[in-house]
Amino acid sequence: MIKVVRGNPTPEELAAALAVVQARAAAAATTPPGATQERPAWSDPSRVTQRRLPPPGPRSWARTFWPG
Questions:
Q1: What CA–CA distances, in Å, run from 17 to 42, 43, 47, 53, 57?
Q2: pTM over 0.70, yes/no
């Protein structure tokens, strides 16, 4: 059951919102269980930590983003 808790939607707005909810539910139902979407490599947080940072010292700030 869906309940409107704020505002006063028109019947058209309510129908549009319900259509979106139904479409999302149908898309989730057609996805096989256990299937995951592949994340692109550029968005992988471990990619950033694979490089070693330069040792601290004078001018180390200049070498921070240069490949090792």
A1: 33, 31, 38, 49, 57
A2: no
